[in-house]
Amino acid sequence: MAIKRWRYNRAGRFRVLAASITLACMPVQAQESPSAAAIDWVEWGQLPPELQQKVPAYCGGAYRPPALEPSKAGDAASEGERSPVHITSRDARYRVDETLDLSGDVRVRQGELRARSDHARYDQNSGTLNLSGGVVSRANGVLLTGKEAEASDETGSLTLKTAHFLLHDAHMRGSAGRVERTGEEAMRIDQAVMTTCQPGRNDWSLAASAVDLDQASGFGTASHVRLRVKDVPVMYIPWLSFPIDDRRKSGFLYPSFGTSNTGSGLFVATPYYLNLAPHYDATYTPQYIHGRGYFSELETRYLSRFGQTDVQLGFIDEDSEYESENPRMDGKRWGLDVTSDADFGGGWRGDLAYAAVSDDDYGNDLNRTLDIQQNTHLSRNGRIRYSEPGLSFSAALRGYQTIDPAIPERSRPYNQLPRLQLDLNTSSGNWYATQETEYNYFWRENEDLQGDAAAVGHRLRTRPEVGWELRGLPGFVSTSMMLDHTQYQLDDIDKDERFSRSVPFADVDAGLYFDRFFDLGDSFYSQTLEPRLYYVYSPEREQGDIPVFDTRLNSFNFNQLFARDRFVGGDRVGDNNRLTTALTSRVYDVDAGIERARLSLGQIHRFENEKVTVKGRGAEADRTSPYAGELVLRPAETMDLRVTGQWDADERETVQGRSQFRFHTSDYRYLFNAGHTYDGATDLEQSDVSAVVALGEQTSVIGRWPYDMENRETAGTLLGLEYSSCCWNLQLVAQRYRTRDEGLDTRFLFQIQLLGLGGSGDAGETARDAIPGFDQRTAIRKRPTPEQLRRPAQQRWP
């Protein structure tokens, strides 16, 4: 057997590398070229077990591209020239200065490009190489097959007729009348039909007169596009741009439509994405809302060397629906949301969150969110902070816009303009010392307020503390002394403008650890028993004349049994003379390294009646508190139960309780959440159930039902249907949600995704926001990347 090898000379022509010529040879029968998709397609049952876990069985299999033979030293291109071409074959006939005929396993290699065929003819006069009979061409990320191919040594192009193609990054296959490789990373396809569905299934496809694919940019364009469902045309698009990998490019995104929030009709939105630079971009979304008019939204993202800044702006010039409901109001409405996070280096960081709307109803009318509960305030926070070991400092401005007109002026939050905080800490051996200092200037509109509600002014709070602690295997003990000192300088009240308050604290915290080991089945477990005592003392100080700027009563649960004070904020400091007794037991799965169960129970014992209150709350007359407990069970990786509550032993009733049960299968095809909340003080009792239930391999039902058990009424519902295939997904969702006026509104949303081209609609966001665990379900169902599917290096393309 004689092997012939050829490549370009410096003039761009082929030259002989091995000169022995076979004068006679056995005829080689040409074979019909298989489709590109069929070459790399591997049936699901033949995939390795680790890939079967990543590829759903209903996909039928996956594309597994082989590794390409590494380029050799002689493949490097000279400066200003293309890479040389290498050709091998079993037989060759050479006519001097005319043609070179090759047959039998003809192989062509140029840089990363590989091609093979049954026959080849090189015409020295025209500088073209014609391949015929089972032509297969492969480069990184692209596979082409066809009956005939023509390569030009002048332009470096490769053209296939009656061809099939496969793009591994986009999972896209197709057929064409003609495919031309116009560069190492560019192709032009004429009369193309393409889809991301598995071979043998054309659930959807795009037929186009011409398609240009540019792997360098990561995008393709198509003209005269027909979207076909089961080979039936359903939509015509004159021109389309689409991604073939994860990179960004300017262009129209897929439209979305559904029902408007107020139920006045349909909305339709056509977002346009602008890839302005690698570090900033924008999305402009013009939309029409029936009954309101044309509404525009603009979102920009900017990434600097310090961090990212996002700006969202919504504007409608003339809202006809709003004008008819509010005759004296202007129809111009807007909303603004700015967020930023920066790292300046050297321990300095900054963050910003600013939101504002033109009117109180903007969020209900124009913001297409899916929250069952509506916001009552918009926050406006800007902060800069510095930290290093032993020191932290922050300076912030905090403000709010109240968008619920039902909230009275005296109950609206204060702005903090500014809020400065400096924390210092040091330690030596078992001793430590800390110093927390905070300054605030509190302000809000107070023209219609009187008394303490009208107060604005300065507050300086310092809390020096010194303590000692010892920790080890048997347990721990710690003790500390702290002074809570606060100074005020107030305006707009008929009281002393300047005054101060000081409250000393002393506390002791101690606990022991006991454990034992045991076997259960084939598993090895450890169980702990952790008793704990906590005592705190602080004297009573008269504080009824101090305005309440930012103080509230701490929520009572097991963790708060060990809180130094029952108030959060600086305007009230509680009087304490109490002892907390608590017991915790944990069960650890030693083999898996997981806490399988935890049970905690504790109670507060008061030696004196509490007297300090905030807005009439916070002073308990009972010498013992209700029992506070929590239970956490994790019998399996996919199951979790958490229960917290308070039990009044004297009255034999539950004071507060919250439970949450979560379960999902390993593939998240089945997902179930059940929650219950009860608060006897506010007469609140509500259940919340959500689930995803697979009706088959590819179809699931999505649902959520919050129910107000106290008022015996539904607080909102969500019901949807999801269908997933390997090349498209569909979600249909109907939702009833509570608005600010306590009524229930209805909307219908959908989302359809043609995998590889994107999707439209808002139903997917609905499910993610409404059902805990749906995000993990979406992530685990993502299609694996070509690198994850690529065959091992020893399985190279021959």
Task: Give a short synopsis of this structure.
With 798 residues, the protein is mainly beta.
Please name the defining characteristics of this protein:
single chain, 798 residues, mainly beta, lipopolysaccharide transport protein A fold, 31-stranded antiparallel beta sheet, 14-stranded antiparallel beta sheet, 7 helices, 57% strand, disordered N terminus
DSSP strand (E) fraction? over 45%
Task: Write down how many β-strands occur, each being a DSSP E stretch of 2 or more residues.
Answer: 49
- Going by CATH, the architecture of the domain at 4-249 would be Sandwich
The CATH topology name of the domain at 4-249 reads: lipopolysaccharide transport protein A fold
Alpha plus pi helix count: 7
How large is the radius of gyration? 36 Å
For the record, what is the CATH homologous superfamily label of the domain at 4-249? Answer: Lipopolysaccharide (LPS) transport protein A like domain
Task: Walk me through this protein's architecture.
This protein has a 31-stranded antiparallel β-sheet that branches. The protein has 798 residues and is mainly β. Helices cover 5% and strands 57% of the residues. The radius of gyration is 36 Å and the shape is elongated. Among the domains are: 4-249, Lipopolysaccharide (LPS) transport protein A like domain (lipopolysaccharide transport protein A fold), CATH 2.60.450.10; 665-798, no CATH class.
